[in-house]
């Protein structure tokens, strides 16, 4: 082992940051979203690799298990590191998908540290870039004007406004385009009866002629409803994302849908690929390095998609800049990335914990950072503030349904709903 490449410590910091009241098929986003920040310190005490993972009690606990396993290992030995973490989690976490969240976050931190040691960017370590800037789609959500006052907490407004009908969604898309230059749009559906969401997509098509559009109801529809929506939006959607649950369900819809079907829900682990491909359930896979085993495994997944003629796009969840940097590096290194990627970043970027400047969303793209590693630097004060918010809030897990029920007690999570 080369001197200086051994891992001394993996520090895990749970954080909370502001999130607007975005609606989805399970309820509504709470005022705070949760993530964990990883700092992988090498034995020189100064090289620190950064990672970012979704938060929540279980994920935090699993990251803490990983932190007990990795000290002493070589930061370049990412295969052995993933295997050691996987073995430590296996007795209590049977799902390979769930274990993948932990190994992925640690791999990103290792790659960042490797880049800092060698003076090369993460995309260089992945084989080099095929594009200098990565295109992202505007991620549109039905939303309330603000978080209503609750339990003595005052209402929390934002500068996006309300979007509860086609006109509101078109206005939000205009703001997204004006602020970030997005050239493609994804609407999070599964909130209103399908015909209202069809109307919103048609309104977007009229307002932004020729721009790629996608609709994702997160499995809120039956097979029959999905077929109806697919017929109605023939020629309007670039792809239809997760209209209905399960691989067989998606396969039934795919038999008659005129547009490609995409998923980040029914194919989320390696063992799902074979049945999905055999049954023709999907035409586009939305990859996500946070659960596919990290950035190198995401590149491998891209090769599988290439081999089987699947299109490739990228999923996102509420996140901050370390994740955006990782998404951008891997997307820049994948030749067969066919469409723009998803990102929640505009909804959360004001509370980022990295030093501003390295990542900018403009013309609908993020330029690939060129500094060593991920090319982003942690802002220790911002991290401390975000950690304080986590501690003070007492919130430990995301609960879109429970939060919705605070305002609409009769609300039920029901998938499919229509
Ligand atoms: O943040 O409400 C949300 C999204 O619905 C998210 O939870 C999904 O994971 O964005 C995601 C998706 O594409 O399914
Ligand atoms: Mg989705």
Task: Write a brief caption for the model.
By secondary structure, the chain is α/β, with parallel strands linked by helices.
Salient structural properties:
single chain, 418 residues, alpha/beta, Enolase-like, domain 1, TIM Barrel, ten-stranded mixed beta sheet, three-stranded antiparallel beta sheet, 18% strand, binds magnesium ion, metal-binding, GlucD-like, magnesium, metal ion binding
Domains (count): 2
CATH class of the largest domain: Alpha Beta
Euclidean distance between termini CA atoms:
58 Å
CATH superfamily of the largest domain: Enolase-like C-terminal domain
Radius of gyration: 21 Å
CATH topology of the largest domain: TIM Barrel
Relative helix content? 25-40%
Structural classification: alpha/beta
Number of DSSP helical runs:
14
Percent in strands: 15-25%
Describe the protein's architecture and organization.
This protein is an alpha/beta fold and 418 residues long. The chain folds into 2 domains: 7-119 and 380-392, Enolase-like, N-terminal domain (Enolase-like, domain 1, 2-Layer Sandwich); 125-367, TIM Barrel (Alpha-Beta Barrel), CATH 3.20.20.120. The chain has 14 helices and 17 strands. Strands 6, 9, 10, 11, 12, 13, 14, 15, 16 and 17 form a 10-stranded mixed beta sheet that branches. Strands 1-4-5 form a 3-stranded antiparallel beta sheet. A two-stranded antiparallel ribbon has the order 2-3. Helix 7 links the parallel strand 10 and strand 11. Helix 1 packs across helix 3 and helix 10 crosses helix 11 (321-332). The N and C termini lie far apart (58 Å). The structure holds D-glucarate and magnesium ion. D-glucarate is lined by residues 22, 24, 188, 216, 218, 264, 315-318, 342. This is glucarate dehydratase. It catalyses: D-glucarate = 5-dehydro-4-deoxy-D-glucarate + H2O. Residues 166-260 form the Mandelate racemase/muconate lactonizing enzyme C-terminal domain. Pathway: Carbohydrate acid metabolism; D-glucarate degradation; 2,5-dioxopentanoate from D-glucarate: step 1/2.
């Amino acid at each position: 082992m080369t001197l200086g490449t051994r891992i001394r410590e993996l520090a895990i910091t749970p954080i909370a940051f502001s999130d607007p009241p975005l609606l989805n098929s399970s309820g509504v986003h709470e005022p705070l979203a949760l993530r964990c920040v990883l700092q992988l310190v090498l034995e020189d005490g100064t090289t620190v690799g950064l990672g970012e993972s979704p938060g929540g009690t279980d994920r935090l606990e699993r990251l803490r298990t990983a932190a007990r396993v990795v000290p002493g290992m070589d930061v370049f030995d990412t295969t052995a590191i993933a295997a050691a973490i996987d073995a430590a989690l296996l007795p209590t976490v049977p799902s390979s998908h769930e274990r993948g969240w932990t190994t992925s976050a640690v791999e990103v931190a290792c790659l960042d540290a490797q880049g800092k040691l060698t003076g090369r960017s993460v995309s260089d370590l992945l084989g080099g870039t095929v594009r200098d800037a990565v295109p992202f789609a505007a991620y549109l959500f039905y939303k309330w004007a603000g978080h209503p006052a609750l339990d003595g907490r005052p209402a929390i407004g934002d500068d996006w406004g309300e979007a509860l009908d086609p006109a509101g969604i078109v206005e939000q898309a205009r703001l997204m385009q004006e602020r970030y230059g997005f050239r493609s749009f994804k609407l999070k559906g599964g909130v209103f009866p399908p015909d209202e969401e069809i109307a919103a997509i048609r309104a977007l098509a009229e307002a932004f002629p020729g721009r790629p559009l996608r609709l994702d109801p997160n499995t809120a529809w039956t097979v029959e409803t999905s077929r109806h929506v697919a017929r109605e939006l023939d020629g309007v959607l670039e792809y239809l994302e997760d209209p209905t649950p399960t691989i067989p369900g998606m396969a039934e819809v795919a038999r008659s849908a005129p547009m490609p079907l995409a998923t980040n829900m029914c194919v989320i682990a390696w063992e799902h690929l074979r049945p999905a491909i055999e049954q023709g359930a999907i035409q586009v896979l939305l990859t996500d390095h946070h659960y596919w085993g990290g950035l190198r495994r995401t590149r491998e997944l891209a090769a599988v998609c290439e081999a089987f003629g699947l299109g490739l796009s990228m999923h996102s969840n509420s996140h901050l800049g370390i994740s955006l940097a990782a998404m951008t590096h891997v997307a820049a290194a994948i030749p067969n990335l066919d469409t723009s990627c998803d990102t929640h970043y505009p909804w959360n970027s004001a509370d980022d914990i990295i030093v501003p400047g390295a990542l900018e969303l403009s013309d609908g793209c993020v330029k690939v950072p060129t500094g060593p590693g991920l090319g982003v630097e942690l802002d220790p004060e911002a991290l401390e503030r975000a950690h304080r918010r986590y501690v003070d809030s007492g919130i430990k897990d995301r609960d879109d349904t429970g939060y919705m029920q605070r305002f609409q007690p009769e609300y039920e999570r029901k998938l499919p709903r229509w």
